[in-house]
Design goal:
Layout: E1 2-6, E2 9-13, E3 18-19, H1 25-30, E4 40-43, E5 49-57, H2 64-89, H3 102-108, E6 114-122, H4 125-138, H5 140-146, E7 149-154, H6 155-160
Parallel strand pairs: 5-6, 6-7
Antiparallel strand pairs: 1-2, 3-4, 4-5
Helix pairs in contact: 2-4
Length: 166
């Protein structure tokens, strides 16, 4: 198992199905050029591909400007992570990535069901839905192209759904 501690939450993931993209050599190489990434990419229980970002908190709906910048930043992370994965698969990046599991690579090449998952440690359930709507609006083109979906969870919901261990 791969253990990741991020934003005050513990994740326990199957190593053979998880790409810790933010800690990868590839990301370290491209990060100097304005590329951002989610924490990790993993296969879900139904073999769907989950791009997971964890945050300690998020701006309130009333703080419109900060919220808009937060949503843009999270959207960039999801899009850049998707692009890095497919650039690796297409061998557009110069070196192979040893931490990108074969199982995950194969699944991404076979009409994957992609889900973007944002887990925010300190967030009310109502704000989760507002943030989810804002992200879906920000990434509406990508959602259409990739037939993907976006979910925002707080710590309590993530614990109930077994996404985090504490």
């Amino acid at each position: 198992m791969l253990k990741i501690y991020e934003s005050g939450m513990y994740f326990e993931l199957p190593k053979a199905k998880t790409f810790p993209i933010e800690k990868s050599l590839t990301y370290q190489r491209v990060n100097t050029r304005g590329v951002s990434a989610v924490e990790f990419i993993t296969m879900g229980p139904r073999q769907d591909i989950l791009f997971v970002e964890a945050k300690t908190s998020a701006p309130d709906k009333e703080d419109g400007e900060s919220l808009q910048e937060f949503v843009k930043s999270i959207g960039r992370k999801f899009v850049h992570s998707l692009e890095v994965c497919y650039a690796l698969l297409a061998k557009a990046l110069p070196d192979a990535e040893p931490s990108f599991p074969d199982t995950l690579q194969q699944s991404m090449q076979q009409k994957p069901v992609i889900k973007l998952l944002l887990i925010v440690n300190k967030l009310s359930r109502a704000h989760c839905l507002d943030l989810q709507d804002a992200l879906r609006l920000q990434l509406r083109a990508e959602m259409r192209i990739w037939h993907m979906n976006i979910f925002v969870l707080n710590k309590e919901t993530a614990l109930k759904k077994n996404w985090i261990k504490g």
